[in-house]
Write a structure and sequence with these properties.
Length: 554
Amino acid sequence: MNTRELQALYDLALRLSGVHDLDALLQDVVAQARRLLDVDIAYLALPGDDGALTIEVTDGSLGPRLRGVRFAPGVGIAGRVADRGEPVRSADYLADRDLEHSDAVDRVAREEGLRTIVGVPLRLRGRVVGVLMVAQRRVREFGGGEMTFLTSLGSFAAVAIDNARLITELRRHVDGAERAARVHGRMLGIALRGGGAEEVVRAVSAEFPGTVLLVDERDRPRVAASGGAVRPAALPAGESPAAAFAAERRTRRDGGAVTVPVASPHAYFGALRVAADAPLQDRDVRVLERAAMTLALVLVVEQAVGDAERRTAADLAEQLVAGRIGDEAAFARRARPFGLDLRAEHRVLVVETADDARVPVRLGDLVREHGGIAAPLRGRLAAFVRADEDVLRAFAATTGGTCGLGGPAAGAADLAAAHADASACVTVLKSLAREGACAAPADLGPYRYLLSGSGRADADRFVRATLGPLLDHDERRGTGLVRTADAFLSGGRHHTAAAAALHIHANTLYQRLDKITALLGDGWRDGDRALDVQLALRLHRLAADLCEEPPPHP
């Protein structure tokens, strides 16, 4: 989905969450599905006690025939969606022999002239609570974006339907109705204003005397509040992160505390825990569950927007370093809202680290603080940051990874060149067995000139002049004499160590060394000549590693 579609879905989700009348809500869902996807007809079926689905509302039908149609389990699009719990589409329903048909359902489909039909599940807490369908009276292909949009609408509709049902149930309890409406209104107001999770937790804490804590999907404290004010977030004394909430994912009473899951139909975000000063009544728990659902809606939207922003940042970074910009002015206008201002000087940080989920998060915090963008790029993490080199070096030291620095640079071409330098620095550090270090080009000593095109050309001429016969022999015969010479000289010219490093017998090593001497001449392993050969071997190895890097700037 693009940003416009995300905004439309966000606006619709907020509006649906505020509709408390179930009939009006169902009608609104199908009307919006028909309008936003530009289809001939939309309809929604809900399950009964016997497991059969009944079409409750329609929009765009030619008459009343479609409303009230029942689908036995497994029958038609609706039955298959309910059975599988996943989207189903048929390009030409009546001719689709892969589906289970019934005469009653087919007759209505024929009278309505339906051909292409798509159905998505309304899932809530792991079960299907309804099926949303759209249909066209001609064969039509629904693209991936449209399917994603319809599936997301179904997810929001499931939450909204459950919301409407919960509100209806709460209103049956006279003593708690007024409070539930007030709390729900306040939560909805926060969502409509685009408030985040912290604001929702603060609002909940104003309703329940005690401490309210939000933990994430791994039971890590995220935000806490009491009396409407944020306080340091921490697990209760004696509880470990593995203790407890994520494993159960259900409302739980534990002494004076109540924990409720914060989840959408497809994702678990964590749990909301209230350690109240007085025991909570059942109606209080229901209000808390309603707040948790509103919080889940806020987090769903935050996640969707965050994912879209990250994809855009990754796309911008890839276009920049690949030189696929075209109109630089247009690219600059597109990049500026995401933090990349081509007019300003940036430094580039490239990080190669183990699979540590904390590093991308912290890199995102770094660019938000100083300005710039960060994204996964070509198997590494890259950040274009408006910060001093000392700031980036200090950050790099905390990642545990191998880091390269480039810049400062402004403008698309120079920023791409700075990224190439930073990425090449990482490669050189790894080739020199300096994993975990951080370096800018100036830190690489004699290897710095390998980062430029002319430097690599000079290095290649030196390598050819020093090792030419050896390289040619390996290429013609498929032998490993270059690797043998490298292991021998790098290991201090100790025969036993070199043989062990190469996993060969000592006699084999002696034979190879004799062959190297025949090709390079006597004296290649001693004095200044040995230094030249060892330097050429290292440059050859670095050049092989760097050949996978983007082309360096001139």
